[in-house]
Design a protein that fits this description.
Chain lengths: ~425, ~250
């Protein structure tokens, strides 16, 4: 590891030492995470799971703790298309009741509860704070976050969570929000998360999602961080019997972005679906890493990833499907497709299947290609200008993902983000 | 002046000369056939006229309505009223046929300074055109050419032509792979457009199509040159004598 990257890591450790006595929640877990992080620091490319994702752009940056209330948040919030849904707003990792619109009385009484990590800290059930650098960093420094729970049997409708970030080039802030989402048996929720920001900052959220038997979560995530920022996120989902986790993710990237999905399919017959797209340009690097563990029989997981890359952008997809010995009749599918719009764009694709059961159906695949010149010419010969023809073909490449969004506002949000990416794409 | 004036056109593909000096004048309102053996340069001529990449024009000029056609992007050629019916129509997975056709129609209308057409009005026109061509409305809901049979693809080309109403249509072996019913539909589609404002270059290997679309003139292309031109009867005499012997003429 470079000395400069080590320095950035050591700065986080120093911040922990300075804050330790004032941080909320049980101190023991933080202490252990901090001890591990002290020894390992930020990951570098010698770490197998970070082989393709070089954090070098972070090197030498010294991040500061933030209580930023500089007023950029309302402007960022105004970028969202209008919605009637309850809004739970976080700015620089802190809950902002003043910006939120959370009229729980509009929901069936007692169905949904929302609290903050700051007021009621709990680290949940995760155990990887001493193995995973992103978890360790978050556990060590988490100060706030959203805690959402939906009572058994109730339909909580839609909840929108904007994560707003006001960065700063001189003293870039870092924040490490800790979120928890719990759905009781048979409960339903559509959760729409939108990360938006300006200038330089590090957003290191950790989200734990627990779905009880038969619960259904539609989880839409739009990651549209500042192009100068760093987004290092991890999401841990536990699926109970016959529960369903459907996620659609659009990553417009940051300077460096990594989104880890750790799914533990613990209940028989559970279903997991992930449609994700990364749209990157300029010098952006973005990484989607998924680890799906089938720990119960008769469950399915389907992952469909699309990358649209231009400029010198670098996309990474690493997907592991691990099927436990008892997880018979598992149906696992994983596909990563990349469309390279420039000579210098690149994609790394690393599928891994680890199968210990004998009666399973698992497949994976990857494709890489440029826009098809025959298709472009066909459109142009019908009068469609080249730029519009390219946009149509990129739209077609991503169309399946939009169609997978069974939520009108969410679909138009994603569609708008795709179209504006195309219009403003950094080349 | 003719609508299309091709003078001394020479073109090569990957350094290999294919067209070696094509001269052809197509007056407004006329339909001309271009016949010739395989490898004579028929499809190359169609692609050069439509502006496909990968063809280097090494000599000659093409005027379309007095404008330098070869200087234009393919989409500008379409906007001027040029239409190529592809020999092998391209599949566009993920692009709905209705959306594709409306985008194409509006692109051409915009370029001509005409107002865009809204979805309702488009559907009405599209349905009327489909009915005239004895095609199913189902066609609009499918992805462009995806899963279409060979005949359906060719009919989709003619459907596009009917909607876009070009001034000049180039039909590149539109008859290949068609059964007699599909051939009839395609021919009817072309004949319905015939008139003073519509001209066509019908490229074909066989005389069969020309029984349905009777051309004003027939040109024979061999080894990259027009070696003979005449009335519709030329197609019939070719049918009897074949293309053998033309090579000698071309070399002479």
């Amino acid at each position: 590891m470079s000395a400069a990257l080590r320095e950035t890591g050591e700065n986080f450790s120093a911040r922990y030492r300075g804050l330790a006595s004032r941080l909320p929640g049980p101190p023991e877990l933080r202490r252990r995470a901090a001890a591990w992080f002290d020894r390992h620091g930020l990951p570098d490319t010698r770490d197998e799971s970070w082989r393709f994702t070089n954090l070098r752009p972070l090197a030498g940056l010294i991040f500061s703790r933030t209580e930023d209330r500089d007023g950029a948040a309302p402007g960022l919030l105004a970028r969202l298309p209008p919605t009637e849904a309850p809004l739970l707003v976080l700015a620089n990792g802190r809950m902002r009741p003043d910006l939120s619109r959370l009229d729980l009385s509009r929901l069936p009484s007692g169905t949904t509860s929302v609290a903050s990590f700051a007021a009621d800290p709990s680290f949940g059930n995760l155990s990887d704070s001493e193995t995973n650098p992103l978890s360790a960093l978050n556990t060590m420094l988490a100060e706030d976050g959203a805690r959402i729970s939906v009572a058994p049997g109730s339909d909580a409708g839609t909840l929108v969570l904007p994560h707003l970030a006001s960065g700063n080039a001189e003293h870039p802030p870092a924040f490490h929000p800790r979120h928890q989402v719990r759905l009781g048996a048979g409960a339903r929720l559509t959760l729409i998360e939108i990360a938006l920001g300006t200038s330089i900052y590090l957003h290191n959220p950790l989200t734990e999602i627990v779905l009880a038997e038969g619960a259904e979560l539609l989880h839409l995530r739009l990651q549209d961080e500042s192009a100068a920022a760093f987004h290092l996120a991890s999401l841990h989902v536990t699926l109970g019997p016959k529960s369903r986790y459907e996620s659609v993710v659009l990553v417009r990237g940051a300077r460096v972005a990594r989104s880890e999905l750790h799914a533990a399919i613990e209940g028989e017959g559970a279903r997991l679906g992930l449609h994700a797209a990364q749209m990157l340009g300029g010098e952006q690097l973005a990484d989607i890493t998924t680890i799906v563990r089938h720990l119960a029989p008769g469950a399915s997981s389907r992952q469909s990833i699309r990358n649209v890359l231009t400029g010198r952008a670098h996309g990474v997809f690493q997907g592991r499907i691990a099927v436990d010995r008892i997880a018979q009749k598992t149906d696992g599918y994983q596909m990563n497709k990349a469309l390279l719009l420039s000579e210098e764009a690149q994609i790394n694709s690393k599928p891994e299947l680890e199968i210990f059961a004998d009666d399973v159906k698992c497949s994976h695949g990857a494709t890489v290609g440029a826009l098809d010149p025959d298709q472009l010419f066909y459109l142009q010969s019908r009068g469609v200008p080249k730029e519009a023809a390219q946009a149509m073909l990129v739209g077609a490449f991503l169309g399946e993902m939009l169609e997978a969004i069974p939520h009108e506002w969410g679909r138009s949000l994603f569609e708008g983000a795709m179209q504006s990416w195309w219009k403003d794409r950094p080349v | 002046m003719a609508l299309l004036e091709i003078r001394g056109l020479a073109a090569e593909v990957e350094g290999k000369p294919i067209l070696r000096g094509v001269d052809l004048a197509l007056p407004e309102g006329e339909v001309h056939a271009i016949m010739g053996p395989n490898g004579s340069g028929k499809s190359t001529l169609a692609h050069v006229l439509a502006g496909r990449e990968g063809y280097q024009v090494t000599a000659g000029s093409v005027l379309f309505d007095g404008q330098d056609l070869l200087a234009m992007e393919p989409e500008a050629r379409a906007a001027c009223g040029l239409f190529l019916a592809f020999q092998y129509p391209v599949e566009l997975p993920g692009v709905g046929n209705a959306n594709f056709l409306r985008t194409a129609l509006n692109a051409v209308r915009r370029a001509r300074g005409e107002p865009e057409i809204d979805a309702m009005k488009f559907l009405k026109e599209a349905r009327a055109a489909l009915k005239r061509l004895s095609m199913s409305e189902e066609m609009l809901k499918r992805n462009v050419n995806v899963g279409f049979s060979g005949g359906e693809k060719k009919r989709n080309e003619i459907f596009q032509m009917a909607l876009l109403r070009p001034r000049l249509a180039i039909l590149d072996e539109t008859d290949s792979g068609l059964d007699i019913d599909a051939l009839k539909i395609v021919s009817d589609g072309v004949n319905a457009l015939r008139g003073q404002a519509f001209s066509a270059l019908v490229i074909t290997h066989y005389q069969r199509l020309l029984e349905h679309i009777v051309p004003d003139q027939v040109h024979v292309l061999a080894e990259g040159r027009i070696v003979r031109s005449g009335g519709p009867e030329l197609a019939l005499s070719l049918e009897e004598s074949g293309y053998a012997g033309l090579a000698a003429e071309a070399a002479a």
